[in-house]
Amino acid sequence: MSQKITIRNFNGQVLGYIEVEDNGDKTVKNFNGQVLGYYKADRDVTINFFGSIIANGDVASSLLY
Q1: Per-residue confidence at 63, pLDDT binned at 50, 70, 90?
Q2: What are phi and psi of 63, to 5 degrees?
Q3: Interstrand relation of 45-48 and 26-30 (parallel, antiparallel or unpaired)
Q4: How confident is the prediction for the chain on average, in pLDDT?
Q5: Whole-structure pTM value
Q6: How far apart are CA 10 and CA 43, in angstroms?
Q7: Hey, which residues does 3 pair with through a beta bridge?
Q8: Average pLDDT estimate for 49-57
Q9: 1 near 11, Cβ under 8 Å?
Q10: How far apart are alpha carbons 47 and 61 in whole angstroms?
Q11: Burial of 50 (0-12, 13-18, 19+ CB in 10 A)
């Protein structure tokens, strides 16, 4: 079962959501639900919307900024 985490700024406005799967994979979506990127736990990389690896490790939340 996946978990949905809401990310808010200091003023309480919703910036987006991170959906975490049981295997550790994450999907990052903006406040409109558009996919911004992914974190693939098995490869330990963060991938942007275009499929390019942007970092080794989990920096999924940085896709919201």
Answers
A1: very high
A2: -70, -20
A3: unpaired
A4: 95
A5: 0.89
A6: 32
A7: 20
A8: 96
A9: no
A10: 12
A11: exposed
